[in-house]
Design brief:
Length: 127
């Protein structure tokens, strides 16, 4: 493995999106109720269930790619799936950031940026 830092960031992204996806999947009603209130004064207030499902799909794809990327890095040193996972992480986080900014939740948006920085580093290192 050429870059242990890349592997560790993929592990961070896996844990982050796996837990988030798990929470959305198994606590769907709770998440939906909270998000409907969170976005009640925005233009997406009537699209919250679809948006939640879309974000869940992005997170699951990201997790699958990140796990495949870690396995690939360990098995043969290739970075292809890890790179795709890093890019998908950035895309997913940008959607989440957009939602937080739309809801005027600036503290939530700031938290997402904290995850975005290592995701961008992973894109750079795995390219």
């Amino acid at each position: 493995m050429n870059n242990p830092a890349s592997f560790l960031i993929l592990l961070l992204l896996t844990v982050t999106f796996l837990q988030s996806g798990y929470d959305k999947l198994f606590y769907w009603k709770d998440n939906l109720a909270w998000l409907k209130e969170h976005f009640s004064k925005t233009v997406v207030k009537n699209m919250v269930p679809q948006a939640l499902a879309f974000v869940l799909l992005l997170e699951l794809v990201t997790v699958i790619l990140a796990i495949a990327g870690m396995v690939q890095m360990l098995y043969n040193g290739n970075r292809e799936y890890g790179f795709y996972a890093a890019v998908m992480s950035c895309v997913t986080l940008l959607f989440l950031l957009f939602g937080q900014r739309l809801a005027k939740d600036y503290d939530g948006a700031r938290t997402i940026v904290i995850y975005y920085i290592p995701a961008v580093l992973a894109v750079y290192w795995l390219n």
